[in-house]
Amino acid sequence: MTKQSVSTDCDDGATLWVARTRGPGFALIWLPVLMLSPILTAVLDGAAVTLAIHLAITALYVITILVANRGLSQRAGELCTIGLMALVVIQFIVSPGGQGFLYPLLAIAAATAIRLRAALGIVMGLAISGSFAEGFATMSLSNALQFGFATVMAGASTYLIRCLTGTVDDLRATRRRLAGLAVVEERQRFSRDLHDLLGHTLSAIVVKAEAIRRFAVADSAAAMSHAQEIEDIGRTALADVRQAVAGYREMRFADELARTVDVLEDAGVKVNTMLAPNLDSSVDTLFAWAIREAGTNILRHAHASTCSINISIDETTAVLEITDDGDGVGQTSPGAGLAGLCERAERLGGHVHTRSNSHGFALIVHAPITGEQL
């Protein structure tokens, strides 16, 4: 069964009607079934007192159901139920026999208006007491059992529908909240990816443009080579942005390392690397984002002459450390790039921290590994 078919089955007309009415419809449809015959009998027999009590019970039953399901007051619903029970007692005093239909009515009212933790117990109490009363009045075990079954079914079914409608309301509210959170998370993902992608790409383009300016007169071939690289960077950036928009951005550490080393060396930064074997796919992608973020920060802020990129691995953790000998300027107040990198690391169960002093700046990324190397 597809997701669409499940949604359709759960949102059919009957289910939506129950959800909208929150149960009073189910409770009220039993009123004519239980009260129509006694009222007509009282009219035909000319029993004015009995008729008045039946009409009062009918009116108070409707008020009890509506008060309970409008959420006006739990206390008001319980008081209405107590009043309904008092009227039923008066009815038994006025006319002792043939009042078995009132117990299912009371059970439905109790299951609707009494607080949940007590409602089912009251329903069972009504069923037991009513069964004994009916059994002694008619001296029939069969009548007593049928009476008890009817009372239990009337009250228990109303109780279950009350619980289920509440659960459905909670699930619908949760679904709306999750949908909102999904939208927020997607916006954050897009904003983070776009910042990381364009920040690095624009920094690389600036470095290449400066190289072209230096070589434009003295070495036209080198200038043309850098111009071609700017074109390639632009095409790659365009593809990356399209992938980020589609949500399928996949970065590889080796590719990002090669691009970052190339750009840093063009900017006059010497890069030393000490790398490990291939990593798990998720860790590889995380380290690729880290390389991109670190390279962008070195180009923009560090004014460094050398940079070291080291990866170390033990049985459970891979650590990427990127250090430079710049003026120690890094994320004294974390920006969007470092915040995005921290989020990515936390998703994998890792963490990111930085170290800054007069000797330079360091970015250290820890990530757990499964031990299955690619």
Automatic annotation (TrEMBL):
<keyword id="KW-0902">Two-component regulatory system</keyword>
<dbReference type="GO" id="GO:0046983">
    <property type="term" value="F:protein dimerization activity"/>
</dbReference>
<dbReference type="InterPro" id="IPR011712">
    <property type="entry name" value="Sig_transdc_His_kin_sub3_dim/P"/>
</dbReference>
<keyword id="KW-0808">Transferase</keyword>
<dbReference type="GO" id="GO:0016020">
    <property type="term" value="C:membrane"/>
</dbReference>
<feature type="transmembrane region" description="Helical">
    <location>
        <begin position="50"/>
        <end position="69"/>
    </location>
</feature>
<dbReference type="InterPro" id="IPR036890">
    <property type="entry name" value="HATPase_C_sf"/>
</dbReference>
<feature type="transmembrane region" description="Helical">
    <location>
        <begin position="25"/>
        <end position="44"/>
    </location>
</feature>
<keyword id="KW-0418">Kinase</keyword>
<keyword id="KW-0472">Membrane</keyword>
<feature type="transmembrane region" description="Helical">
    <location>
        <begin position="76"/>
        <end position="95"/>
    </location>
</feature>
<dbReference type="GO" id="GO:0000155">
    <property type="term" value="F:phosphorelay sensor kinase activity"/>
</dbReference>
<keyword id="KW-0812">Transmembrane</keyword>
<dbReference type="InterPro" id="IPR050482">
    <property type="entry name" value="Sensor_HK_TwoCompSys"/>
</dbReference>
<feature type="transmembrane region" description="Helical">
    <location>
        <begin position="140"/>
        <end position="161"/>
    </location>
</feature>
<keyword id="KW-1133">Transmembrane helix</keyword>
<dbReference type="Pfam" id="PF07730">
    <property type="entry name" value="HisKA_3"/>
</dbReference>
<protein>
    <submittedName>
        <fullName>Integral membrane sensor signal transduction histidine kinase</fullName>
    </submittedName>
</protein>
<feature type="transmembrane region" description="Helical">
    <location>
        <begin position="101"/>
        <end position="128"/>
    </location>
</feature>
<feature type="domain" description="Signal transduction histidine kinase subgroup 3 dimerisation and phosphoacceptor">
    <location>
        <begin position="186"/>
        <end position="250"/>
    </location>
</feature>
